[in-house]
Design goal:
Order of helices and strands: HHEHEHEEHEHHHEHHHE
Structural class: alpha/beta
Mean pLDDT: 91
Shape: elongated
Helix content: 40-55%
Radius of gyration: 19 Å
Number of strands: 7
Number of helices: 11
Largest sheet: 7 strands, mixed
Length: about 270
């Protein structure tokens, strides 16, 4: 990919533990789109920037073969360690140089990854490898409208979360900003006439305080901060965790809170 920020073994382990799997309902929307545009059979799906395979595994029941591609061998090792998916293969590679013959891929996906790609090179490769009427689905989440709920202290928890984002804003890269824009520039650059956007797909789940703080530790901007000042970064996480627990009036990091947030998806179908 154009950026290489998630390759270390420690970060790969954090990704596997704390990154959230995209909602199954959004995956269903993507498969319905592929059914409508290309139809059966669904032979090959390729998940780009697959990381530790959370989204890749969602695709497995719907295709004869699924291939996850990532630049990080450490991320791929975490993905391969998950048993039970005999039709998934993981390969090291980039979205800009895909190891597939022309016109052989039914579906190209990227979950919380496309903002790291070189847009022009990726789109050339997508056009090359997709079958006629084959589809791409580029999904992600926006952190702008996240809501945390626990009894009557949800607003206080949301303020703490937003304070963390502001603290780390100086370490936010341009690709992360592109993701927050819901890939607007990349959507405009897709050359296929048949394309559409899902602006808001709401997701709600229960997560522990431990998982929420772990998720923050997986952010690229947190890791940029950690590289600059490891002790300050660790202290920040400990402080955030303590503030969450204090506001909630609990002591266990396994206490669960409700998380509401918003996914988006860019869909496109290659013409005949």
């Amino acid at each position: 990919m154009a950026y290489r920020l998630f390759e270390g073994k420690e970060h790969a382990s954090i990704y596997q533990q704390y990154r959230f799997t995209p909602p199954s309902g959004l995956k269903d929307v993507i498969i319905e789109y592929l059914d409508k545009k290309k139809g059966q059979p669904h032979v090959l799906a390729v998940d780009l920037g697959c990381g530790t395979g959370q989204h890749t595994r969602l695709l497995a029941p719907h295709f004869k073969e699924v291939i996850g591609i990532d630049i990080s061998e450490c991320q791929l090792e975490e993905a391969r360690a998950v048993p039970g998916y005999t039709n998934i293969t993981y390969r090291k590679g980039t979205a800009e140089e895909l190891p597939f013959e022309d016109g052989t891929v039914d579906l190209l996906t990227a979950a919380s990854a496309a903002h790291w790609f070189d847009p022009s090179r990726f789109l050339l490769e997508a056009n090359r490898v997709l079958k006629p009427r084959g589809c791409m689905a580029l999904l992600g989440f926006t952190d702008n409208n996240i809501r945390l709920n626990y009894k009557d202290c949800g607003e206080k928890l949301n303020r703490i979360y937003q304070e963390v984002k502001e603290l780390l804003r100086p370490y936010t890269s341009n690709p992360v900003a592109a993701s927050e824009s819901k890939l607007e520039d990349l959507y405009c650059a897709i050359p296929f006439p048949d394309k559409e956007r899902i602006e808001s797909f709401q997701s709600k789940s229960m997560i522990s305080v431990r998982t929420l703080v772990g998720f923050i530790s997986s952010w690229s901007m947190y890791n940029s901060f950690k590289k600059k000042d490891p002790q300050a970064a660790e202290n920040m996480l400990a402080n955030i965790q303590k503030r969450f627990l204090d506001e909630m009036g609990v002591t266990s990091v396994d206490t669960e809170i409700e998380r509401e947030w918003e996914y988006f998806c860019v869909l496109a179908s290659k013409p005949l």
